[in-house]
Design a protein that fits this description.
With about 130 residues, this protein is of the alpha/beta class. The chain is built from 4 helices and 5 strands; from the N terminus they run ββαβαβαβα. The chain has one domain: 3-Layer(aba) Sandwich (Rossmann fold). The chain has a 5-stranded mixed β-sheet with strand order 1-2-3-4-5, sandwiched between helices. It is globular, with a radius of gyration of 15 Å. The N terminus is likely disordered.
């Protein structure tokens, strides 16, 4: 009899310790769910209401995607608070992440792509 390994799906969005003031960062791991997105919304709503404009960093190095429900939550948040986001740094190592950043700029956002090895530069850019 052969033993098979069960694939464990682990997902989370973790607030990064470098977050401070009006700059907040998150690391996305696995396939993000609506519940994961709902956990970060209070932080972002607080920043929008108390800091005015804020900057965001998304570390997507271990991100594998998001559910349709999570995408819907993201879009709803973007429609409500998109004008409050001053800058977005996308950190990763995949071609599609750079394309998403370019699309965000096309939509009028101030977004910049950074390779995973450049995460410190991403934090500096957000704080400029």
């Amino acid at each position: 009899m052969f033993a098979t390994k069960k694939k464990v799906m682990y997902t989370m969005i973790e607030k990064l310790r470098e977050s401070s003031g009006n700059v907040i960062g998150y690391k996305a791991v696995g396939t993000i769910t609506k519940e994961d997105v709902e956990k970060v919304k209070p932080d972002l709503q607080y920043l929008a209401q108390n800091e005015g404009k804020f900057c965001m960093l998304f570390d997507l190095d271990q991100f594998q995607g998001e559910t349709v429900e999570a995408l819907t939550e993201d879009l709803e948040f973007g429609l409500e608070y998109g004008n409050d986001i001053q800058k977005i740094a996308i950190v990763g190592d995949k071609e599609w992440e750079e394309k998403v950043t370019n699309t965000a700029n096309t939509l009028g956002m101030n977004a910049k792509y950074f390779h995973t090895s450049e995460i410190e530069q991403a934090w500096r850019w957000l704080r400029e």
